[in-house]
UniProtKB/TrEMBL annotation:
Pfam families, per the entry: tRNA_edit
CDD domains assigned: ProX_deacylase
InterPro entries: YbaK/aa-tRNA-synt-asso_dom_sf, YbaK/aa-tRNA-synth-assoc-dom
Entry protein name: YbaK/EbsC family protein
């Protein structure tokens, strides 16, 4: 009998099915809280990891799906979204708005939709990997699919 999935992963799987995503969630042997650890376990380039980073944009959550090869320029994304101040969110803020822990935030499966920017750099990879609600889970997708399933805006974020 298969192990029961973590409730966050089950919610993300449901959200993926509802959005007709064909990629299956993969449960990793070890936690992958960073792009480097995920890439090492998956045997892919670090740039093919879609980091899900939550920012506090004037008090509202902002999800930036960025290539693991990039660092997000908060001044740039503040201008892109018309925010006065964008800063890295606290773990409590992340969990409040996504229901998921830092290191496992998925692009979908949140209690309410979160405004999303999708790093155009991810389009350079045929397959990108995104977290699936828990630091031990990921799923394969693509840049175009991330834009579609999140309703996100393609953007240069570095």
């Amino acid at each position: 009998m298969p192990e029961k999935l973590h409730p966050n992963v089950a919610r993300v799987e449901q959200a993926l099915r509802e959005r007709q995503v064909t990629g299956e969630v993969v449960v990793l042997d070890d936690a992958a809280p960073t792009a480097a650890t995920a890439a090492a376990q998956l045997g892919c380039e670090i740039g093919a990891i879609a980091n899900s980073l939550i920012f506090d944009a004037d008090g509202a959550p902002l999800l930036v799906l960025t290539s693991g090869a990039h660092r997000v320029n908060t001044d740039l994304i503040a201008r892109l979204v018309g925010a006065v101040k964008v800063r890295r969110a606290t773990p409590e803020f992340v969990r409040e708005h996504t229901g998921q822990p830092i290191g496992g935030v998925a692009p979908v499966g949140h209690p309410a939709p979160v405004r999303t920017l999708v790093d155009t750099w991810l389009g350079k990879h045929e397959v990108v990997w995104a977290a699936a609600g828990h630091p031990h889970s990921v799923f394969p997708t693509s840049f175009d699919e991330l834009v579609r399933i999140t309703g996100g805006t393609p953007a240069e974020v570095e």
